[in-house]
From TrEMBL:
This is G-protein coupled receptors family 1 profile domain-containing protein. It holds the Pfam family 7tm_1. Keywords: Cell membrane, G-protein coupled receptor, Membrane, Receptor, Transducer, Transmembrane, Transmembrane helix. PANTHER family: B2 BRADYKININ RECEPTOR/ANGIOTENSIN II RECEPTOR, G-PROTEIN COUPLED RECEPTORS FAMILY 1 PROFILE DOMAIN-CONTAINING PROTEIN. Residues 52-320 form the G-protein coupled receptors family 1 profile domain. InterPro entries: GPCR_Rhodpsn, GPCR_Rhodpsn_7TM.
Amino acid sequence: MLSPRVICSHIETSSEYEAEADPIYFLSPDVKNMVLTAGIFAVITSICGTFSNLLILLAVGVTRQVKTTSTIFVLNLSVAEFLFSLIVLPMVAAQCFFIYRYNCSLLTDDHCAYFTTIRYALGQIQVQSIMAIAFTRAIAIGIPSLFEYINRGSVIKAYIAFIWIYSVGVRIPVALGEIIDDRFGSYDFNNKTLECDISTDSPMTREVYIGLEVYFPIVFIWACYIFILMKVKQSTWAVRRASYTNNTSSDNCKSPQHEALNERDLRVLRSVFIIFMILLICAIPVGITHRGNIATDYPTVFISFHIMYWFQYSIDPVVYSIMNVNYREAFKDFFKKIFPCS
């Protein structure tokens, strides 16, 4: 359990820092050890996630054979995960080590406004990229004529720009909450959860963000995948019926939906679905613990769920390489260029 403590006056810091620092809590030995473990895992995940996602960007990004609409959004997803691993996780690790050593937060409330905006924005870009892949594939198989219009470089670039602008912009009201309107809440350091988050005096703001950035994307992605599965099944049955009756040639057996969603697209779609499931498995426990008293009643469990959440940033590139033969070939070609055979 956590008990209140005074401001960290024993640390040699500027008077400005001491004035801004919030009182934190004494940590039990178990919680302190878990905070230290979280910091170590944050470092490991940061290193693995940074280099593995960078490999995706370098290997797949320069390979023209896999430049499909889905792959472009996969690369956008990897950019978000790369930046999360490069920027957010090292800061998380530093925060954990600082709390373990001094029992107070490295980040002040002012720091939290910047850090939390970046953290949540990159997480939302990740979700929005998965949404974009599911949505464009559903359009491709459901309305091929519309897909021909949106499957253009200018439209895809505009879509990606929208994802970034939206993901960052939707966080601005809270980041500037104390300046423009305190009804939006603000990003502060939470003494009970030992993290930067939306202030506890704005529960409505938290619920709006959870609905907008968690519940809606999950329902939308599931709806897209169910729609795609139904269309693929219908297409498969139509082809089988046509082949049994021999009333159509093999060239005419394929339905427009089947042509719009080729085998390469299906492989990417399967890979992204696995990543979506990993996201749910890793993120849902963290989301649930934020809605109750688990953070204060079971702090070690609360911290362990965060470690579980970070794990996805290093495992997603492994999913790409295992599930998608085109990406594996891209990796092989990339390494051949880097390490040519003598």
